[in-house]
Amino acid sequence: MVQQQEPIDSARDWVAEHARRYVASDGADGHLWRGYPTLVLITTGRRSGAPRRQMLIYGRDGDRYIVVASKGGADTHPLWYLNLMEQPEVQVQVLSDRFTARARP
C-alpha cells in the first residue's frame, strides 16, 4: 500500500495493536481473530483527508472481499463506512497481499 502519510489507527487500543501486528507480520500474526479472517482497510477521512486504518472481519464471494458495516448492531454506521461512502477508493491488505480497491455498498 502506498500512503503519503502513516495511517491513523483506531482509537481502540486493542484494534490499533491488532493492526500494527498484522501489518508488521504480513498477516501471519493477526489474520485470524477469534477464528475469523481479518483484513486491513485504509479509508480516507471524509473531514480530515487523513488515511484511517481499521481491522475488519471479511468473507469472500469468488475473488471479491466482503465486509459488513454493522458497528456491532448499532443504529448508526461505523465511521469507516461513512468515510468510504465519501471516498470509495481504499487500500486493503489481506495477509501479505496489498492492493487498491473501490468499495461498493
Q: How would you characterize the overall build of this protein?
A:
The chain is an alpha+beta fold and 105 residues long. It has a single domain (13-102), classed as Electron Transport, Fmn-binding Protein, Chain A (Pnp Oxidase, Chain A, Roll), CATH 2.30.110.10. It is built from two helices and seven strands; from the N terminus they run αβββββαββ. The strands form two sheets. Strands 1, 2, 3, 6 and 7 form a five-stranded antiparallel beta sheet that branches. It has a two-stranded antiparallel ribbon with strand order 4-5. The chain is globular. The two termini are 22 Å apart. Belongs to the F420H(2)-dependent quinone reductase family. GO terms for molecular function: coenzyme F420 binding; oxidoreductase activity. It catalyses: oxidized coenzyme F420-(gamma-L-Glu)(n) + a quinol + H(+) = reduced coenzyme F420-(gamma-L-Glu)(n) + a quinone. It comes from uncultured Thermomicrobiales bacterium.
CATH class bucket: Mainly Beta
Biggest sheet: strands, sense, closure?
5 strands, antiparallel
Q: H/E order of the elements? A: HEEEEEHEE
Rounded to an integer in angstroms, the radius of gyration calculated over CA atoms is 13 Å
> Helical residue percent?
10-25%
Number of separate domains: 1
Strand content: 25-35%
Q: Return the CATH architecture.
A: Roll
CATH topology: Pnp Oxidase, Chain A
Number of helix segments? 2
Whole-number mean pLDDT? 94
CATH superfamily: Electron Transport, Fmn-binding Protein, Chain A
Structural class designation: alpha+beta
Shape: globular
Uncertain segments: none
Q: How far do the termini sit from each other?
A: 22 Å
Total beta strand runs:
7
InterPro entries: F420H2_quin_Rdtase, Split_barrel_FMN-bd
Protein name: AclJ
Family: Belongs to the F420H(2)-dependent quinone reductase family.
Pfam family, one: F420H2_quin_red
